[in-house]
Amino acid sequence: MDISHQITGHTKVIGVIGSPISHSRSPQMHNAAISKACLDYVYVPFHVEVDAIKDAINGFRALDVVGINVTIPHKQLVMPFLTSISREAELIGAVNTLTFSDGEIHGENTDAPGFIKAMEEAGASPPKGKDVVVIGAGGSARAIVVALTLTGAKKVTIANRTEAKAIALAEDLSDKINKNNETDGNITQLIGMGLTDARLSYAVSECTLLVNTTSATMDNTHPLLIDENWIQSSTTVYDIVYTPPMTTLLIAASNRGCAVVGGIGMLVHQGAIAFERWTGVKPCVDTMRAALA
Ligand code: ATR
Prior knowledge:
Layout: E1 12-18, H1 26-36, E2 41-47, H2 53-62, E3 67-70, E4 84-85, H3 87-92, E5 97-101, E6 104-108, H4 111-121, E7 131-135, H5 139-150, E8 155-160, H6 163-178, E9 189-194, H7 200-206, E10 209-212, E11 236-239, H8 248-255, E12 259-261, H9 264-279, H10 285-292
Parallel strand pairs: 1-2, 1-3, 4-6, 7-8, 7-10, 8-9, 10-11, 11-12
Antiparallel strand pairs: 3-5, 5-6
Helix pairs in contact: 1-10, 4-5, 4-9, 5-6, 9-10
The structure holds 2'-monophosphoadenosine-5'-diphosphate.
């Protein structure tokens, strides 16, 4: 797409930082949405090394950049340079969206609301009051468990290859969210366990929503991390992996009659929420999705 002819002294700059950054598909996604909405913005990828992060942030502020997405390895590293941070980002311990305004830099994490939006868009019932199983206990799992807890899920079982990480994640978020009573009295029970825990088959067979946050399902030769026979047809199965669009888990769940949702929706919606924050305009999510494809 050639957008250079549209750039003038009025054009506002948004973008993304990471290292590496050349693989990022965010520029296609955001620039397509900018064109569709006829906005005078441009979204630029910036390769920023770890030791240059402070200079980069100060540079963006000096250059009156409107907003920046943050990807690996900077999601935690940028945090000390922010003037404010959303509660979700604080709980997740990582930011993916910076908004620059009047010398202030606000950090948030749009992965959590992006996940909820993607579920809504797919027609899945809201997590409030429901039992959920999350496979994995890394950064993506943390964002999703924060989203589920803040929206009032009844019980979230976190099952991970490394049991100790699942238990630590459940205990940490339970302490931080439930003890502060941040969810209008909807206390979420958070349980961490290993993938071989005998309680997992029951948790999977009883849950309304099953979420995979591991990269294991990207590889179609990798065995499923849970027994597919545990999955009931009434369960919605969500996989954050978006390549391939139908992962091994989603194929198995679909064959069992489940509603299934792939990871592209979360990718699109986390971007759409950032786009609206910066421009004040709701982007066309179908355009963003098509640009990613
Ligand atoms: P992300 O930020 O994308 O969540 P991460 O923090 O590296 O990435 O976390 C990856 C998660 O996927 C972890 O829960 C990891 O399990 P471990 O904690 O035991 O490492 C899980 N994972 C990745 N590959 C896996 C595999 N082949 N089998 C089981 N779990 C896997």
